[in-house]
Structures are given as structure tokens and as C-alpha cells.
Give the backbone structure.
Amino acid sequence: MPSETAAVGRSDAVPAAGVVEHAEPALHLTTLAPDGAITHRNLDSGRSSVIARIAPAEDVVTDGRYLFAIRDGAVTIVDSGAWTWSHGDHFHYYTAPSRVVGDVEGPGMPTVVAGERSIGIHFDGGGAAGQAVLVKAAPLADGEIEELFRREAPGGAGRVIPLAYGGWVTERSGDEIARLRHVDEEGVAGPAVRCADAAGSIATVVGVLVACADGAVIAADGRPAKAERLAYPAPRDRARAFSGREGRPTVSALTEGGAVWVLDTRARAWHAWRPSAPVMAVAAIGDDAGRVVAVAGDDVVVHDEATGRVRATVGAGDIDAGAALFPEQHETFLVDREGAAVVIDHASGTVAHRLELPAGITVLTGR
């Protein structure tokens, strides 16, 4: 239940009115259906509601509050109305009315990377020149879209990765992505760091991490001047996307060859192991027990993060190949595109709940 309904002090994180503060995270499973309907499932009350109807989209990503629905030529931004705000040593949990904020348009298919201060969008150009865009996060709470910069970029795949100030924009040498160039919030280009074939990124409590062909690059505290290269300790299959619990230092990645990388960004330490069965999703819990959760067939398997030793196997039922994992402190949410959702208690290695959701792409909001 809400702890208070009085107006919350104005900040970059909080809209001026209509905010309710809660004692616990206001977690929701939010689904984008193929027809563009967006459904919010309140995990506390169990109630569902349609919060928006937008043009159909091919994918959706979130920063924990805003949804970024991706389609050729545009990104539609939707405020889910549920979020967590970190004040360093403690957290605040809020809800507010949901709304469609608007569209960011550009040439070709967009790739979105959501950060705390800004959102990076790279449009691939659709066979022509692309564009790199950085959108300021704070005005979204007021229903406004403010672009910090928009720059021409080479056509083809690329990324804009938000940092503490400005962002890294992928740069090419010939046809290949070769480096990350810092561009400040005025659009002025600065130094670059080598990162061949840069791919997925993630923000941890330590800094912003980007997958490279031979390891990763981390910008400690989100500052490009504090960038470090974290090479793989031995030649292995590379990681392309990292996953982990919000606000924790440990992340995991499934390699192209089916192995698992686990990286402690605070210790700068890699671990690698190979599951006994093929895995389609993996997520580091980042807890003191050192757990990693993986989806293998119709099972959820809890592994030791350093060795891969199996700690528990949980029968999850019939899971679609498009399954995603969302780890929280005590539970991990497993959802697929057919609407099946399983809540795993990773400490006991049991199924806590089973839920039915609309078919579509589901993300966890309110985190």
C-alpha cells in the first residue's frame, strides 16, 4: 500500500504532481502486444490494465520506468508510471499515471540503450546514412522529449551508449565497428577507446560496461576518462549482451558458442564455464551467495557464478524460445512471448508463482 500521497519533492526523477510514494518497489510486468496494446500487470495486487495503445512495434526495452518501443523509423516512448529512484544509500519507490510521451524519429531501424541521465538511439539508415541521437531523460517525466544531440552516423549497425555526461558513439574503421567515441551533451566529439565489434552494454553500480570482441570496456562511474579495457583471461567465445540485477556489480553473458561468462565489475574478474545443457537465457543475481540463473529447456537452473556448479533445478514448464529473465533480490521472473510467466525463488530453488500474461514482449517495470 502507498506510504503517503503528499506531493513528492521535485527532482529529475519525479514529476510535479500525481505521484504516490510506496514502501516497497511497485513492480509490474508490462507487455507490448503485437497490435500495440501495452498491458500493465501489478505484481502486488495482481490486477492488469491497458495503459496505452501505440502503433505496432518489433521490440521494446526499458530503463525500469520508460518503455521504448522500436520499429523502423521511430521509437515510441511510454511512461509506465512505476519506478525506483536511488538516493545512494537508500531507495524510493513511486507510481504516477501512465502516458505516451511521444516518438523519436530517424532513418532506418533504431537500437536503443537506456541510461539514468539519457537515452541513446542509433538509427541504422535503412541502406543510407544513419543517425546517432541522445535524448535527455529528465524531461520525459513532464511528457517532453529533448534531444541533447543528433549527429549523422555511418549506415548499418551501431550504438549510442549513455554515460554520466554525454555518451559513447560507435565508430567504424572501414566496414567494422572499431572504437567508442565520447560525444558530450553539446554534441562535441572527444577521445575514443578501442572496442572492436562493440555490442551490448549494461550499467552496473561500478560503471557502464560494453561488450567488445576481445572482452569489454568499462567506464567507471560512467566517466569516459576512467575507461578501462577488461580483456578475456583466455581466448574464448565472446559475449554480446550482459544481464544482471539492477544496482549490482556482477553481470553474466551467454556466449555465441553456448558457454557462460560471469564478470565481477568491482573486482574486474572474469569467470567462464559451460552448462551441461544448452541455455537460452542467463542472468546474474549478484547476491552474497554468488548465484546465476539460467533457462535450459523447460528448466530454470541455479548455478554457482564462479564454477557453474548446479545448486538447484526448477521445472518451469513449457517455455517459449524467446524467454527473458529479470532477476530481483529474492525472486527471478521468467517470461516468454506466449504469455507464460514463472516467478522463481532462487534461494529455495522453487516456483513461487505462475502467471498468465498477454502474448507479446514483456519487461519488468518499477525497478
In short: Residues 1-15 have pLDDT under 50 and may be disordered.
